[in-house]
Design a protein that fits this description.
The model has no long low-confidence stretch (mean pLDDT 81). A hairpin with a 7-residue loop joins strand 4 and strand 5. The two termini are 30 Å apart. The protein has one domain. A 5-stranded antiparallel beta sheet has the order 3-2-1-4-5. It contains 3 helices and 5 strands, in the order H-H-E-E-E-E-E-H. It is α+β, with helices and mostly antiparallel strands.
Length: 142
């Protein structure tokens, strides 16, 4: 019975918002650090858009480029580029500059993105702040 009394005063929705906000902050920091690390210590090579794959998520149909490049060790990597591609129009056969992690070549970014790729962590931080504000408002009934 004591547990039910305690649960009556505990705001599960506020806790949910706090947890989601914390997870989004952690994800934003992780993505930013990964991107910064690859851009500062990564290896730069030329790659090519070899195909497109249609993806359907959250009721949105999108075309994701398949990029092929050769690592310094001679390994051929062919992978979807789903990280971000704000403002870049891809065409079949288009040459792109790849920056990849030596330890994990499938983890790469496009040099053409420049600073535009930093928008994802900012969006995640804004959403996280909104979730935390919602939680605080619920707890303190502001």
């Amino acid at each position: 019975m004591e547990v039910l009394k305690w649960a009556r005063y505990f705001d599960f929705e506020a806790m949910f918002c706090l947890v989601i906000g914390g997870v989004l902050i952690a994800k934003a920091i992780s993505f930013y650090l990964k991107r910064t690390n690859i851009f500062s210590k990564g290896i730069t090579v030329k790659g090519e858009v070899v195909d497109f794959k249609l993806r359907f998520s959250s009721n949105i149909l999108s075309s994701v480029p398949i990029i092929r490049f050769k690592t310094e060790e001679g390994r051929i990597i062919e992978s979807e580029y789903t990280t971000s591609a704000f403002g870049i129009h891809f065409e079949l056969g288009m040459e792109v500059t790849i920056i990849y992690s030596k330890d994990r070549p499938t983890s790469f970014f496009l040099k053409e993105e420049g600073g535009r790729g930093n928008i994802l962590p900012v969006i995640l931080l804004v959403i996280a702040c909104m979730m935390i504000v919602i939680a605080i408002r619920r707890v303190f009934s502001i």
